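Handoff note, outgoing to incoming analyst
You'll be picking up this chain. Sequence as last confirmed:
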Amino acid sequence: MEGCRKVEACRDALTTELQKLAREVSTKGTERHKPVTKSK
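Most recent structure output, in case you need it:
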């Protein structure tokens, strides 16, 4: 998200990063999935 100068550019960059994070959280076996689902 570095270097975004307009609100629209920042919004797009943030949305992209949040989508990546959501995919990682919802993918079984990832480090971000484990704490959310309390998996081991």
